[in-house]
């Protein structure tokens, strides 16, 4: 029926779970309240069976109904087959997750559900073994919850799958993977996907033994209901009671409708395979099994089938009516206003009547149709004065605002705990405040965080025993234990997944990526999963992970990158904080821990050994987001920068001052959000000249800052000369001090550009130098 809806044009795309039903029933039987799923688009039967999806909701999602009540999983934002439960309420507060059968929110990229699954299971380990977390009874019953993952056989070819399986084996966590194996990935058969064409066969080395920890691996056929039930009961017992990972490879599954509505499987499956699939359809097989064992008669089953179809038909129709109804008021008011406009218009009656007629004749009109029609009418009426014009204009404004809520809300947290609501608390210094290495200031901050909040834990490569490569956690593992400050393998994407999963279950991870250059390895999960989380659920889930990394200047191609525009372009939904020193960084950590947003905090790689004064209130002071700081006042040129560049720009500003040029240096401090009160334009009003500089490529985040200031803040109106950007070179930075000097903006570059701007204004006072 879903497929038909697509072919009739009532829905845009359909992907369905046929052929995978019976195994999902078995999985549902062992799935308890408090458990949590991280799966993919085939799991409709499972979601029905655990009672977290109704038929009507299923169709509402297919149609893209934007009400949370109609499609609680995604509010019409994701295509059908993307399942989810809501773990936070309308105020953004956590629900009692131990009372819900939970599902995290599916994403479309194959295997993208796997890194998060590691974190969901890891949370159970922390809840079980850290008694200080036992008070968090709304999240866990002392770690008794299992994280269930599902994945298609072909998607196990992805690197993320293998990284996640390995991580779970190392961590020994209650992670229960089901692989739905129908021997294809769209049109590509198993022999092109998997060595030996058999995923559990090649994962056999992960099988635990008496001597060695690992996975418990099971194989079972997808049409064998009794066998599936047995395996799932046994596997769930091992997973839950022994708190170890298990993997169930469900073979001999089918895909009777083909991959999706985008094409038919007759194009790539042989006649023999199609016949085999027909014979091995799991519902057909289950039916035979029920008849053979006398659990039901053929008549009873037929009656169930007839009744089921009717139930589905009613749910489908109800969902469709509700979907159309949700748009009716706008549509009808548009028609009414257009009719009035046609009547009032002396000049354009025919044109407006035609626009209205087109809208009337539109089959299954959507919101955009009405907006297009009203806007067209307003364009035509631009030169004619009619009474209804004001109403039409208001109608457009309201429609845009309403649809902003429908389609663009909740990119970040909109709760009272949003990072934007955390108030600034100034760092306090005493006369005897010690001057320390930057890394020691950070360490004091982390020490205080770990002491005051048991939910906080830090993970990453070299974070545990040596306290990270720059030792901001030095000694903290000894003090707080291995569960709080923890080494991980070299596996960036699952470090992030481990953070996301744990944060989805109420914990407060600091997930560390050793160098900013290696964030690229984790970018998929940051971009696809974490950045979209609040958005794709319309505020139904949150994962306040703090991602810690260090970047910008140091040495060489892979230890001094600053790929900020890559981050800005791919991670909207995660705040991006770029502190210039470790004190500002500490203030950001304190801010983020108070908030329910996710953030990336990029420390300056070359700042750990620079001396900074330790604030007396290291655990309390907060640096607010989106508030630039003027590091130096000046009247001639505004220089906008952040991070390690602040010191270089300050040095250049000092040199410029000596020859009578006064620069105002602004540290933006956070790129996302960017200068929320539009303070930079105030500086440009004073100086009439502006420069944007950082260590990204030309046209990268300097261009981003320029767009924000010139376009959004209207600073172009105050400029006397062309705005400048001073980025790094297009290539990665070369090694050693000269490599750095000639790859990244240096003091002389800043000096020369600023001088040139002054020369343009007053060549007599500032004659050409070179
Ligand atoms: C990263 C990524 N690459 C490609 C796709 C397109 N795609 C969607 S589903 C799919 C096949 C997945 O097959 P399998 O994992 O066996 O699951 P099945 O659909 O057969 O249940 C592909 C290639 C995608 N969604 N994500």
Automatic annotation (TrEMBL):
<comment type="function">
    <text>E1 component of the 2-oxoglutarate dehydrogenase (OGDH) complex which catalyzes the decarboxylation of 2-oxoglutarate, the first step in the conversion of 2-oxoglutarate to succinyl-CoA and CO(2).</text>
</comment>
<protein>
    <submittedName>
        <fullName>Transketolase</fullName>
    </submittedName>
</protein>
<dbReference type="InterPro" id="IPR029061">
    <property type="entry name" value="THDP-binding"/>
</dbReference>
<keyword id="KW-0786">Thiamine pyrophosphate</keyword>
<dbReference type="InterPro" id="IPR001017">
    <property type="entry name" value="DH_E1"/>
</dbReference>
<feature type="domain" description="Transketolase-like pyrimidine-binding">
    <location>
        <begin position="436"/>
        <end position="610"/>
    </location>
</feature>
<keyword id="KW-0560">Oxidoreductase</keyword>
<dbReference type="InterPro" id="IPR009014">
    <property type="entry name" value="Transketo_C/PFOR_II"/>
</dbReference>
<dbReference type="InterPro" id="IPR005475">
    <property type="entry name" value="Transketolase-like_Pyr-bd"/>
</dbReference>
<dbReference type="InterPro" id="IPR033248">
    <property type="entry name" value="Transketolase_C"/>
</dbReference>
<dbReference type="Pfam" id="PF02779">
    <property type="entry name" value="Transket_pyr"/>
</dbReference>
<dbReference type="Pfam" id="PF02780">
    <property type="entry name" value="Transketolase_C"/>
</dbReference>
<dbReference type="GO" id="GO:0016624">
    <property type="term" value="F:oxidoreductase activity, acting on the aldehyde or oxo group of donors, disulfide as acceptor"/>
</dbReference>
<dbReference type="Pfam" id="PF00676">
    <property type="entry name" value="E1_dh"/>
</dbReference>
């Amino acid at each position: 029926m879903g497929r038909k809806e697509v072919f009739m044009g009532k829905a845009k795309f359909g992907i369905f779970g046929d052929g995978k039903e019976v195994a999902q029933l078995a999985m549902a039987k062992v799935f308890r309240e408090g458990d949590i799923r991280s799966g993919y688009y085939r799991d409709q039967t499972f979601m029905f069976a655990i009672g977290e999806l109704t038929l009507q909701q299923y169709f509402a999602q297919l149609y893209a109904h934007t009400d949370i009540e109609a499609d609680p999983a995604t509010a019409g934002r994701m295509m059908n087959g993307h399942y989810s439960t809501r773990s936070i309420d309308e105020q953004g507060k956590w629900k009692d997750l131990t009372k819900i059968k939970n599902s995290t929110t599916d994403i479309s990229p194959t295997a993208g559900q796997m890194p998060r699954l590691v974190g969901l299971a890891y949370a159970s380990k922390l809840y079980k073994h850290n008694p200080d977390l036992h008070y968090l009874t709304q999240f866990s019953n002392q770690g008794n919850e299992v994280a269930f993952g599902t994945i298609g056989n072909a998607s196990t070819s992805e690197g993320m799958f293998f990284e996640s399986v390995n991580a779970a084996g190392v961590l020994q966590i209650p992670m229960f993977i089901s692989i739905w194996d129908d021997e294809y990935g769209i049109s590509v058969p198993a022999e092109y996907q998997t060595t030996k064409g058999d995923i559990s066969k090649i994962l056999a080395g992960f099988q635990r033994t008496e001597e060695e920890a690992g996975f418990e691996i099971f194989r079972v056929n997808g049409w064998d209901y009794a066998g599936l039930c047995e395996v799932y009961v046994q596997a769930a017992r091992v997973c839950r009671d022994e708190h170890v990972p298990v993997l169930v490879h469900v073979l001999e599954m089918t895909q009777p409708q083909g991959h999706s509505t985008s094409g038919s499987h007759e194009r790539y499956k042989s006649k023999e395979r199609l016949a085999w699939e027909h014979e091995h359809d799991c519902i057909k097989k289950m039916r035979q099994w029920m008849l053979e064992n006398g659990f039901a008669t053929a008549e009873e089953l037929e009656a169930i089938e007839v009744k089921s179809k009717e139930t589905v038909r009613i749910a489908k129709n109800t969902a469709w009516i509700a979907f159309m109804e949700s748009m009716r008021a706008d549509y009808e008011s548009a028609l009414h206003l257009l009719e009035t406009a046609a009547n009032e218009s002396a000049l354009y009656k025919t044109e407006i009547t035609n626009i209205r007629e087109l809208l009337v004749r539109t089959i299954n009109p959507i919101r955009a149709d009405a907006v297009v029609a009203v806007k067209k009418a307003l364009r035509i009426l631009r030169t004619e004065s009619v009474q209804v014009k004001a109403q039409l204009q208001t109608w457009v404004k309201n429609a845009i605002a309403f649809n902003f809520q429908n389609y663009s809300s909740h990119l970040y947290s909109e709760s009272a705990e949003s990072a934007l609501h955390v108030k600034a608390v100034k760092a306090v210094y005493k006369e005897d405040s010690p001057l320390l290495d930057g890394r020691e200031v950070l360490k004091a901050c982390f020490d205080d965080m770990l002491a005051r909040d048991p939910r906080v834990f830090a993970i990453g490569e070299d974070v545990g025993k040596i306290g990270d490569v720059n030792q901001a956690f030095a000694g903290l593992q000894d003090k707080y234990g291995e569960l709080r400050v923890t080494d991980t393998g070299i596996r960036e994407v699952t470090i992030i997944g481990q953070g996301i999963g744990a944060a989805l279950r109420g914990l407060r991870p600091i997930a560390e990526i050793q160098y900013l250059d290696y964030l690229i390895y984790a970018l998929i999960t940051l971009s696809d999963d974490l950045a979209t989380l609040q958005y794709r659920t319309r505020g139904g889930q949150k994962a306040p992970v703090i991602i810690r990394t260090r970047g910008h200047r140091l040495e060489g191609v892979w230890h001094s990158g600053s790929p900020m525009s890559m981050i800005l372009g791919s991670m909207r939904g995660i705040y991006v904080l770029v502190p210039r020193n470790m004190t500002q960084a500490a203030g950001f950590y304190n801010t983020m821990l108070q908030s329910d947003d996710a953030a990336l905090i990029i420390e300056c790689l070359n700042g750990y050994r620079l001396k900074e004064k330790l604030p007396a209130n290291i655990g309390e002071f907060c640096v607010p987001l989106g508030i630039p700081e003027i590091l130096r006042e000046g009247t001639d040129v505004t220089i906008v920068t952040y991070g390690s560049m602040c010191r270089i720009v300050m040095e250049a500003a000092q040199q410029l001052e000596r020859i009578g040029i006064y620069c105002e240096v602004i540290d933006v401090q956070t790129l996302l959000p960017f200068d929320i009160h539009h303070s930079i334009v105030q500086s440009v009003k004073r100086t009439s000249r502006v420069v944007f500089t950082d260590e990204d490529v030309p046209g990268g985040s300097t261009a981003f800052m320029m767009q924000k200031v010139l376009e959004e803040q209207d600073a172009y109106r105050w400029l006397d000369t062309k705005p400048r950007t001073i980025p790094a070179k297009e290539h990665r930075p070369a090694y050693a001090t000269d490599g750095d000097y000639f790859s990244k903006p240096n003091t002389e570059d800043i000096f020369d550009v600023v001088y040139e701007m002054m020369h343009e204004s007053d060549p007599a006072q500032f004659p050409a130098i070179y």
